[in-house]
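Try this one yourself first.
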């Protein structure tokens, strides 16, 4: 058996920068360094859906958290999170460790720490209703793929915390 039974849930754009608003991408494909560090530590990755992309499409304008903070967007977020909650629960029921959620600092949807994005607010609230609480970590706004960055040490510590 080769399962380490450790999982990190990530904001969609960690693996797919093509979903980011045009001209706001910070890597060619995905944040390879974060992906590599996760896989090197035998942690599997589950990619969350991109709520902005599925709500407004690829050619959407930049918007603030306040602009996304509508009943329609929150309902959309909860709808696309339904299957994710089932995955969380299924993994937990079978003894997997959810290492945490990797978000994007400053995102109106996927910030998990400072000014939580709308999507992450909904996800964390839904998990809380199930009695599930997870750690979170954000890729900083100033992070550019390919540059050595202090955050990688902090990320390494995050994925090793129990």
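Now uncover the answer:
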């Amino acid at each position: 058996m080769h399962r380490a039974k450790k999982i990190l849930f990530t904001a969609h754009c960690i693996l797919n920068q093509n979903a980011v608003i045009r001209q706001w991408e910070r890597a060619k494909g995905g944040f390879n360094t974060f992906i590599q560090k996760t896989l090197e530590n035998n942690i599997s990755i589950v990619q969350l859906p991109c709520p902005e992309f599925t709500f407004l499409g690829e050619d959407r304008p930049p918007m603030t958290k306040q602009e996304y903070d509508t009943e329609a967007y929150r309902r959309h977020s909860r709808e696309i999170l339904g299957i994710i909650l089932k995955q969380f629960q299924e993994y937990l029921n079978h003894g997997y460790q959810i290492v945490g959620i990797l978000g994007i600092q400053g995102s109106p949807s996927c910030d998990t720490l400072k000014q939580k994005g709308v999507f992450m607010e909904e996800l964390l609230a839904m998990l809380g209703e199930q009695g599930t609480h997870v750690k979170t970590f954000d890729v900083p706004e100033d992070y550019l793929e390919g540059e050595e960055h202090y955050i990688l040490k902090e990320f390494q510590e995050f994925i090793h915390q129990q």
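Discussion: The radius of gyration is 15 Å. Helices lie at 12-15, 32-40, 51-56, 65-68, 71-93, 118-129, 151-160.
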